[in-house]
Amino acid sequence: MGGDQESYVFIRDPEYAWIPAIKTGNDDKKAFVKVPKYRDEQSILCDGGSGAKEWEEDSVPLKDYNKGVLPLQNVDGAGHLKPFPDMCQLTFLHEAGILYNLKYRHGKGLPYTRTGDIIIAVNPFQWFTDIYTEKVRNRYSRILVWEYDPDAGGGDPRDDVDPHVYETSSLCYTGLAFGGKDQSILVSGESGAGKTETVKIAMNHIASCQQGPNAGSMETSPILERVVRSNPLLEAFGNAKTVRNDNSSRFGKYIQLQFDMGTKAEQEFRSRDKATCTLAGSKCEAYLLEKNRISEHGPGERTYHIFYQIIAAKDKTTYWSKLAGTTNEQFMFVGEACTTTIEGMSDADHFANTVTTLGEVGVVDDQLMTLMQAIIMVLQMGNITFEPKAGDDDKSEVSSKKEFADLCELMCIDQNILEVCFTERTMKTRNETYKVPLNPKVAREATESFAKEIYSRAFLWLVRCINDATAAELNYKSGSMKDFGIIGLLDIFGFESFVRNRFEQLCINYCNEKLQAKFTEDIFRSVQLEYEKEGIPLDEISYDDNTDVLDLIEGKTGLLAMLNEECVRPKGEDQAFVTKALAANKKSPCLFANKTNRRGFGIHHYAGKVLYDAEGFVSANQETLPADLSEAASLSSNEILAKHMTNDSCTNFDNKKAAAAEPSRGAPRRAKSNLVSPTVWAKYKGQLASLMAMLKTTNSRYIRCIKPNKPKKPVLMQHVTTIEQLRCAGVVAAVTLSRSAFPNRMDNSVVRFKFWQMWDKEKFPSKGTKDMDQPVKLQHDCQALLACALAPLAENDPKTGKPVTIFCVGKTRSYFKFGALEFLESHRSAGLDVHAIQMQRVARTFLARKKLVGSAKARKEGVFIIQRFCRCVKAKKEAKKEVEKMKIVQAKRLEKQAKEAEEKAFEQQLKAEIEDREYSAKKEYNKYDQRLDEVAGQIKEAEGRFKERKDEAVERVESAKTEAQELRDKLENEIKPAAREPAKQAAAQKTKLEESGKLIAFLQKENKKLKSANDKAKKEMKKVKETNEKLVASNESAGQSFEMLNDQSKKMSNNTSGVNKQIEKYKKDNASLREDLKKKQEFYNAEAQIRLQYQKTLAQILDVFQDNCKDADLVEDVVCVALECESEAKALLAAAEAAAPGM
Q1: What global pTM score does this model have?
Q2: Binding site annotation covers 445?
Q3: HSE of 77 in the Cβ direction (CA atoms, 13 Å)?
Q4: Given this model, what pLDDT does residue 383 score?
């Protein structure tokens, strides 16, 4: 590019993708730009830098841009964006231009933008009621359906309305009702972009269209109402919370609205005065439910909603009694929930709605119980664990006995049978059948696979129930009709690229590649129609499609074939699959190896590069239910397990057609082997082929949903995430395709207006004449003008030697190759110097004449102006002085008034404070005086009570003394007869007497303690009196003293009660001692008698022995033994006597 004129461009930025700048010049390798710096990302706009806080000069390498040209901004002369509702009208249609056009409209609350036949819906994260009213619905229906007549000519009716989902739904109904061709709407976008809500809006508007041109209030069709009401069912069983969206659809669905096309006459001569194409029913097809989410989910995410709903349900014990008291944490597949509310409703409330809606589609009573128990079985299977059997790590057995028993009870299957199915695998070849034990890890994986299969079959069973309730084949006109017109709505996951991409992402991206291929065909067809309309040769169109990626995935040596081959091979491995795939497709430009992961590989998708981790690919592709578990399921009393584990259909009324398609006779079939079974990818490819076949029979329209920011905030748009979604949605690819031949375009009238100065009419005369129509003449003028202006860019094709087409002029627009329009913009000022000189000559002449003619009058007017100015200045100075004086006087007066007011307020405040304090002191004094009187009365009462208790205590002490003296006298009288006993008995009695003396001494000590307590009480009483005197002397401490007196009075009462308790205790002890003395006396008397008798007997024995025994040594030994026995007896007696006082 040459030229020295500044131009508004976009440059790449690592943080914000694209930012606006002003190009000031360039050389061969770099462009020099001025970059405005904004406060934040949301403030970055195409505004010529008016909102920038500062500017920065920089240079950018041209090699980073397409053909070394910086993309230009779609702005006016001041650098402000010129937004368009249809981005095909953008002069410079490129990635950056799309981004800033969408950002402007998003900020203005306009969520929909058109790009040809594509509607781009940016999620506003708020509800705009004004664009979804009945009036707006009827307006789109009226303009695009009932008043639109393509045979009458005229322009595009979409020019009269803003882009909207209603536009797409209206054109679909028009195409079906008046064009007679089935229609489809393909809605795509990432999680949280608003796909499901967009489908709802489109369905509601289609129902509005089919009511006719005179539709009144929006009375929803009962059929559509049933379809819309069934959507929460699919959300409950097929949606989950992800990090991107709280209610993310984890499956794809294709809803076919079925229409009664009317009679043949009505179809051939369709009237626009009334609706003869009416809604009859609907069918739903479900695709690729994310099974892995059943058994595991990431942090901050949840598994499918229905699990949480059942656990939170108030009536969950209705479906299984053992759910009572259960929580999310008790089920391993569920775990701790990161939230218990979805879209403002609790899980329990959602479950109530789910049950209600199930009833509306006929799932009640036994069917409802069947469905819910199948879901509960999946929950319970997550709690089944295994351990090595008898220490053998290659075998396994169930370790969670209780959970397993509960599961068997729920499934109505014998425990032994089910355990064998979980822990062993039956292998069947052509000639033999044998069993192979499973280790604990494989057994657990088999259990999880069984749970996933049950859930996916329950989901399909639910889809079939919904179709039974909504399908026109069963419900419209008693099922008498079979052929219907179709408007299909495809709500499917968009292109995905995460940090770690697994088998599911490859399947999803494969689906998007197939859809992108159809999208490319449809866009090419629209471009072809546009070029034909403008009269531009079609040989100028060239574009790249994605057939190379599809060949890589589904070709004979593609990834699908390699993976299926590895699944068939015994002990197939993920790494072997990657190695074979890379070797077989090493010439493919779309496949590359992951140098950091041996089990990884990458694919160049249409939306960009994606790295896949092949770990688990083989097992994920082999997720077919083993024969053992299939047989176990057939034994269950649950209908879903027993009858529907092999039913892959989404309807119950296509079985006859499928049976008719099968041949009745054929060659004998080979014996089946369970070593080879259909893979997940093969099944999915078949589903996808069926979907694409249906879509190819329809006229497709596209809605691309965009999630503008991750925090889900209104107005905000993040550049990088939006650009990535535009690429993944194929919008950038569509733009590239539509502008592949001529990226830029401009109306002929604008070309003539903007670049007329670059036209040398003598060298490049126009072929247009005055007799021609204005559009035709304008076309010839633009042809000559552009041939002149773009002559420096003319070159020949090195291959053919023919001139390269730089531009083409159509009937209404001019089309430019890449770089041509940028060249024109940068050289616009090159031919303006001659015209500028002419304009300056005329202007200077006019000014000079005006100056000469009016010089005298001008001098006079000048004098008046100077006088007025001087007077004005003088008056202003005097006025300023007066104002300053008045300000000083006013300030002094205000200061004096403020001071007086302050003093007055201070005096009033002081007076009020004195009065308040006097009143408070008087009130306090009266309170204390009254309190003193109360305390004095209480003290007198306390003194009286203390005196009475003291006298009572003294009496009790004297009584205790008297009783002690009586006891001592009695003991002495009882001891006297004992004195007549032998000396030892007398000694024992003496010991008893000493003990009694000790008891008496003990009682005396206790008496002294009582006296001491009495003295202490007197002292405390004295302290009470002193406290009373202090209380009277100082009324300020009256309250505290009163509390102290109360405490002391309580203490005295406690002491007195303690003394009474001690006296009672001593009385009881005295009585007990008397009883003990009697018993001990009797015991010692008996002991003494026995001892005397023993000594006499022993002496007699010794005498007899000595007299009769002649062995002197034996006699001596016996005497020694006798003496030892006597000494031991004495020792025992002494010990007993020593222990007696303590007994």
Answers
A1: 0.66
A2: no
A3: 3
A4: 95
